[in-house]
């Protein structure tokens, strides 16, 4: 991210938006193009959420997500988000064990280009340690997926005044510990409003009504790229999944129906290049097409015995010069076998192709009237060239 970006959303701007009652807009992003699009749309902040475990890695929950998964996404998002404030989400077991681990992992997010980190739950001591290390923290209360089993599942939180008061007390202690923002997930708007009104720091919500200081939505929910379930608070702005699915189906059909690639998808080559460099290739191609046609029309086949006997003849003629014919005859089978099985099968294919070419030429010969004529070398060259 360019350090001198004048439009960069900073903590000062986010605080001011709370003071001026301007709603702050957040969305998740997990890769470079998503970050670019979110940035271009004008969101204030981007969360590299561990929801990527479910939306892009195919897990059933966020629990298996690792720091490595998160950092790869964080780096990509940092490259795409030029303007938006960015928050990296500390995944399960990256902050629970000790202050040291929490600070180290938070630091890794900052090195990956994030502006702040998000910590789930009322982790006052951890939040203080990370803040003391100079790193901004967004705390996440209400429905906290890392402790969903303890909450009895993905359930709306703060549904009674007492429950809302407990969350408010947690939020206040996190604010005292130095936390910079609060995110409330899955709670009635009245509870969330009461908490937001009692905190100095900006309070954003996901499924927490419209009275908080800003909204967060998971991009895949918003654009129709997540199908496992759809929460009540989600609004789909488009069905990108259906569009991509239908584009992919069109592609598959067009390749099979020979409609793609077509003229507009081919690279061009100048006519003179074709004439200059491609004539040999075209001659080869013609010859290949002719021989394939002859092979199939005349059902020409090369048998294994023919390959072996041609290999033997070749070996015989090579050894004949040394006058070893008697000794050689005894060993010929094994020499031929050795020769044909070595060189990764290439020797076998060479003999096979030679036998096949001989058969094709023989077939052509049988179809033609051949006239023999003596020619001089330059005349021969002209004939070959044509
Ligand atoms: O990972 C995420 O996207 C989140 C939101 C659900 C708040 O933590």
Describe the structure.
The protein is elongated, with a radius of gyration of 37 Å. It has an 8-stranded parallel β-barrel, surrounded by 7 helices. With 386 residues, the protein is of the alpha/beta class. Helix 5 packs across helix 6 and helix 13 packs across helix 14. The protein has 16 helices and 8 strands. The protein folds into 3 domains: 225 residues, TIM Barrel (Alpha-Beta Barrel); 28 residues; 88 residues, no CATH class. The mean pLDDT is 91. It binds 3-methyl-2-oxobutanoic acid. The site of 3-methyl-2-oxobutanoic acid has 11 residues, from strand 6.
- Number of strand elements: 8
Helix content class: 40-55%
* CATH-scheme architecture of the largest domain: Alpha-Beta Barrel
Q: Assembly state here?
A: single chain
Q: How many separate structural domains?
A: 3
Number of helices: 16
Radius of gyration: 37 Å
Which cofactor or ligand species appear? 3-methyl-2-oxobutanoic acid
H and E order: HEHEHHEHEHEHHEHEEHHHHHHH
């Amino acid at each position: 991210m360019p350090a001198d970006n004048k439009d960069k959303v900073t903590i000062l701007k986010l605080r001011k938006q709370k003071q001026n009652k301007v709603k702050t807009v957040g969305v998740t992003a997990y890769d470079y193009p998503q970050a670019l699009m979110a940035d271009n749309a004008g969101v204030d902040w981007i969360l590299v959420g561990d929801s990527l475990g479910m939306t892009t890695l195919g897990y059933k929950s966020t629990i298996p997500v690792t720091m490595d998964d998160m950092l790869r996404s964080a780096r990509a998002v940092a490259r795409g988000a030029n303007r938006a404030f960015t928050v990296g989400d500390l995944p399960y077991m990256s902050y629970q064990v000790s202050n040291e681990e929490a600070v180290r992992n938070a630091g890794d997010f900052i090195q990956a280009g994030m502006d702040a980190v998000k910590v789930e739950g009322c982790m006052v001591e951890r939040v203080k340690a990370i803040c003391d290390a100079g790193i901004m923290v967004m705390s996440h209360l209400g429905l906290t997926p890392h402790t969903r089993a303890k909450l009895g599942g993905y359930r709306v939180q703060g549904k009674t005044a007492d429950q809302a008061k407990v969350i408010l007390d947690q939020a206040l202690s996190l604010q005292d510990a130095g936390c910079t923002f609060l995110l409330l997930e899955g709670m009635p708007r009245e509870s969330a409003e009461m908490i937001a009104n009692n905190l100095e720091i900006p309070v954003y919500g996901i499924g927490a009504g419209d009275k908080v200081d800003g909204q967060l939505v998971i991009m895949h929910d918003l654009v129709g790229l997540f199908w496992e379930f759809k929460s009540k608070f989600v609004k789909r702005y488009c069905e990108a999944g259906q569009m991509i699915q239908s584009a992919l189906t069109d592609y598959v059909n067009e390749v099979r129906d020979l409609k793609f690639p077509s003229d507009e998808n081919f690279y061009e080559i100048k006519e003179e290049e074709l004439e200059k460099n491609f004539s040999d290739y075209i001659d080869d191609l013609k010859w290949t097409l002719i021989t394939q046609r002859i092979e199939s029309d005349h059902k020409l086949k090369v048998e294994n015995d023919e390959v072996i006997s041609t290999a033997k003849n070749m070996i015989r003629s090579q050894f004949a010069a040394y006058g070893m014919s008697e000794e050689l005859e005894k060993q010929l089978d094994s020499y031929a076998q050795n020769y044909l099985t070595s060189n990764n099968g290439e020797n076998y294919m060479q003999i096979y192709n030679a036998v096949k070419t001989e058969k094709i030429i023989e077939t052509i010969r049988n179809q033609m009237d051949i006239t023999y004529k003596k020619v001089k070398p330059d005349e021969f060259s002209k004939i070959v060239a044509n």
